[in-house]
Write a structure and sequence with these properties.
This protein is an alpha/beta fold and 536 residues long. 24% of the residues lie in helices and 15% in strands. It binds alpha-D-glucopyranose (GLC) and calcium ion (CA).
Length: 536
């Protein structure tokens, strides 16, 4: 029987790096692969054991590199394929795995396949992309098309921006002649090409992939049945040839994604309410005017609303794999927006003590701000979350020696902006606490990915929130008060002593032999309840 997931995932803590903004090794103003290698010691010190790199392949960068023009080549501005192989090895020596970003659904319009596909004369790539049968196609489709672009008489389907034409994996239920079935040789060829790309980078030393828009592969696919079938083929290939490799999806539906063979699935705010109910909306327009999540000092959120969805997702994952919540990513308004450092610390305490596989977005561990910036490379509101990492007090916050005007994006201009060096010196900084939380999680199986999770005290529109994590003999109680005022939880002591697993769906509140926890404003507590005499 194949294993559910590689063993290293059970205590994995990921760190996401946006390559142009991490560290610039050659002073041209843009972060690069050698720069990431130069900062691996920092990541080892922080205690993470895995990195996810946003796309680092050849691209015209009309969407931050999610518009690839050559899957087999590192973007020259980031370095060479040799550099990337060196990164894999250098990270491995420090116990860190590196996963890449796989963009299976679309390429750049600059990709040679697409250029060929645009031609009037039939060729190998004519059906590599999805084309309608009219260049002047002003009919209504469920699919978005770009009209009037190509020499051939057809309009191409896009997945995101106009510059990202959809690769052709076929239609589960074709309704027009131009919609090819998934079994069509051209669609099968697309699939083989994707497998080849994956094998190329796995052979080079990549530890797996974060898969972009994983649910949108096969079109007109009710229940994603054909899409799921395709990812299962990919997973079978990994299990057979690369059993240590990991696949994580941008899908936001763990039940479907795990069935499709992904080891974990991101819970993104626009598709799944978990992130929003916990952290508030982080989409366009900033965070201040949007509904608050539970982790908010105004105490406006509702933990029971979060648990309703979260426990359901967790149940779907049990015995199948994981789900992933993140502090942020390259598509979201930074966590710091509208929040104090103390609030951030409480959030890290939650994300690093929940089950699943947590992801930390670079810079969130020091509380970097979301900047108000004009669009860069298709970032739009997301641009403000992609600014250079702030390392120290030197020029450009230690990110690059280039003149200010040549930087990929400006550094946070605030004089007192947070830096890694500044927070390493201060034992009470956010960074030090994040490091302690990561170490605690990785030391104790009860707190890591697979540990059981049971709410102990969670009431509608009230604080605090108390939960138990358990695995084997280990038991930890976590209490969270995000609100700006004191809070008290009272519950039955038996809840903590019961040897049986607690009913997962039921939020338990009891009278009788009570325990109460009193908490100050914006605070958290993690209590080790492991009874060292038990089980003897
Ligand atoms: C994903 C990426 C996002 C990109 C889009 C199109 O959502 O995270 O940054 O713009 O896919 O590839
Ligand atoms: Ca550089």
């Amino acid at each position: 029987m194949t294993k559910l997931y590689p063993a290293w995932l059970s205590d994995a803590v990921f760190y996401q790096i946006y390559p142009p903004s991490f560290y610039d090794s050659n002073g041209d103003g843009i972060g690069d692969i050698k720069g990431i290698i130069a900062r691996l010691d920092y990541l080892q010190w922080l205690g993470v054991n895995a990195i996810w790199l946003n796309p680092c392949f050849a691209s015209p960068f009309r969407d931050g590199g999610y518009d690839i023009s050559d899957y087999y080549r590192v973007a020259p501005r980031y370095g060479t394929n040799v550099d990337l192989r060196r990164l894999f090895r250098a990270a491995e020596r420090r116990g860190i795995r590196v996963i890449l970003d796989l963009v299976p659904g679309h390429t750049s319009v600059d990709h040679p396949w697409f250029r060929q596909s645009c031609r009037a004369q039939r060729n190998k790539y004519t059906d590599r992309y999805i084309w309608t049968d009219q260049g002047m196609d002003f009919r209504r489709h469920d699919l978005r098309t770009v009209n009037g672009y190509a020499e051939r008489d057809g309009s191409y389907v896009t997945n995101f921006f106009w510059s990202q034409p959809a690769l052709n994996y076929g239609f589960a239920k074709p309704t027009q002649l131009w919609q090819l079935p998934v079994t069509h040789p051209a669609c099968q060829a697309t699939r083989r090409e994707l497998m080849k790309i994956m094998r190329y980078w796995l052979d080079a030393g990549a530890a797996g992939f974060r898969v972009d828009m994983a649910s949108s592969i096969v079109k007109n696919d009710p229940g994603h049945r054909q899409t799921i079938a395709w990812w299962r083929e990919v997973r079978a290939m990994l299990d057979a040839k690369y059993p240590q490799a990991m696949l994580i999806s941008e899908w936001s539906n763990p039940a479907a994604a795990l069935r499709a063979g992904f080891h974990s699935d991101f819970l993104l705010p626009w598709e799944n309410p978990c992130h929003k109910l916990l952290l508030g909306a982080r989409g366009p327009g900033g965070a201040s005017d949007q509904p608050a999540g539970f982790l908010d000092r105004r105490g406006r959120g509702d933990i029971t609303a979060f648990l309703d969805v979260y426990l359901d997702c967790l149940r779907q994952c049990r015995g199948r794999g994981f789900m992933s919540l993140m502090t942020g990513n390259h598509d979201l308004v930074r966590l710091r927006q509208g929040r104090t450092m103390a609030e951030l610390e409480v959030i890290f305490a939650v994300l690093l003590t929940l089950p699943g596989i947590p992801f930390i977005y670079y810079g969130d561990e020091i509380g970097m701000k979301h900047l108000d910036l004009p669009n860069k490379e298709g970032g739009y509101f997301r641009t403000g979350a992609r600014t250079p990492m702030q390392w120290d007090g030197s020029r450009n916050a230690g990110f690059s020696t280039a003149p200010k005007g040549k930087l990929y994006l400006p550094v946070d201009p605030a004089k007192n902006h947070p830096t890694v060096a500044g927070q390493q010196e201060n034992s009470n900084s956010l960074l030090q606490h994040v490091r302690d939380l990561i170490a605690l999680r990785r030391k104790h199986p009860a707190l890591s990915g697979e540990g059981e999770f049971a709410p102990i005290y969670a009431r509608k529109q009230a604080c605090p929130f108390v939960y138990l994590r358990r695995k084997g003999r280990e038991r930890f109680l976590v209490a969270i008060n995000p609100a700006n005022k004191p809070a008290r939880a009272r519950f039955d002591a038996k809840l903590l002593q019961s040897g049986k697993p607690l009913a997962p769906k039921k939020i338990l509140v009891a009278t009788g032999d009570q325990i109460s926890i009193d908490m100050g404003p914006v605070s958290y507590a993690i209590m080790d309840l492991t009874d060292s005499t038990a089980g003897r």
